[in-house]
Amino acid sequence: MFRTVLVRANSALKSSINVTKPALALGSSRHMSKESTETDEEFDNRYEAYFNRADIDGWEIRRGMNDLCGMDLVPEPKIVIAAMKACRRVNDHSLAVRFIEAIKDKCGGKVNEIYPYIVQEIKPTLVELGISTPEELGYDKPELALENINDD
């Protein structure tokens, strides 16, 4: 009951005092640009250096991969190779396979053109590190798909 009285008193006090905040109105501005000042080569080098860090851990690898997956691009093979090596350094095979799956998904409608090129470029690294592709693991086919009884 005491709480209700305090809430009503506070509300009445606020409505009786008309406080304007001109400092907030004057200080709010956003400086944004649609132009990127980073070239494609600088972008690739930045992410390659990020994944090549010796002290990178699993969380940071996931963060970098998540950032890449959130962008409207398919990462270059050299970035994918650096990410695969980072996954091997932290001994996370499943993360490497999931990243390859995400890359396949990022290819969109051009999956038959882009994804085979990516796999061809990273295949020697995958063999060297002992990382399987999703197709080698059978992840490209449904595991528990049931036969449709209506298909006679």
Automatic annotation (TrEMBL):
Biological process (GO), any one: mitochondrial electron transport, cytochrome c to oxygen
Cited InterPro entries: Cyt_c_oxidase_su5A/6, Cyt_c_oxidase_su5A/6_sf
Main location class: mitochondrion
Molecular-function GO terms, alphabetical: metal ion binding
GO cellular component, one term: mitochondrial inner membrane
Biological function: Component of the cytochrome c oxidase, the last enzyme in the mitochondrial electron transport chain which drives oxidative phosphorylation. The respiratory chain contains 3 multisubunit complexes succinate dehydrogenase (complex II, CII), ubiquinol-cytochrome c oxidoreductase (cytochrome b-c1 complex, complex III, CIII) and cytochrome c oxidase (complex IV, CIV), that cooperate to transfer electrons derived from NADH and succinate to molecular oxygen, creating an electrochemical gradient over the inner membrane that drives transmembrane transport and the ATP synthase.
Protein family: Belongs to the cytochrome c oxidase subunit 5A family.
Name by which UniProt lists this protein: Cytochrome c oxidase subunit 5A, mitochondrial
Originating organism: Popillia japonica
